[in-house]
Amino acid sequence: xxxEHRDDYQELVDEISELLGAPATxxxxxxxxxxxxxxxxxxxxxPSALDPVRTRSILTRRSTAAVRAWFEGFGITRATGPVRIPxxxxxxxxxxxxxxxxxxxxxxxxxxxxxxxDPGPSEQQLDAAMRVTARIGAxxxxxxxxxxxxxxxxxxxxxxERDWQREMAxxxxxxxxxxxxxxxxxxxxxxxxxxxxxxxxxxxRTVPGATALCTLPWGTGGTSRALEAAGGGLSLALLLRLRSxx
Length: 246
Known about the structure:
Elements: H1 3-20, E1 24-28, E2 33-36, H2 52-60, H3 65-72, E3 83-85, E4 97-104, E5 107-115, H4 123-159, H5 163-177, E6 185-190, E7 210-217, H6 222-229, E8 234-241
Antiparallel strand pairs: 1-2, 1-5, 3-4, 4-5, 6-8, 7-8
Helix pairs in contact: 1-4, 4-5
């Protein structure tokens, strides 16, 4: 998640929490945590609000594949409105959930999760919250498009074979970065990168400080053959914006 959107997501999640009177969390469609509403520090913390599933999501910033499959079994990927999910202690869900699908142009991009309570939010409250999720969806769509563009531009810079090609690629990357191009940047490479294919890379929003990332072939000659024999052959390159020294 880029820093320019982080506060926007947090403000929108807090807005939903205030509308519904319950702490909310925002995850992308891969169940990676983006933002979560803070508890009222003056009130008593309800231990049931931190059941194993919710605790893991907040602490590790993602849910397991099993948890994802369990929740998706309630039809949240197809839903266009709120979905209520009952408490299921054996699955680690000690409190029921209300899932608000986050969509943009009919495509699900994420989910807002709330702890259900009795009697629960009214239809009017849920309608108001869904209007906020539409704004979240627009942000996620914009960020996804921008991130995809930067991935292509970063890969072009790092794979350019001639000086003039590299200069053109750098200029295009600078244009895509806009105002974020100002200030120092660095590239970090992780190799070998265990991946099923060149497009199998983490979301840029899950890597703190990352502006763009992409996978690249790694190694030449014997190194490349050794990695291929080990089932690898790819590296992960990350473009990071450094803090100013001023």
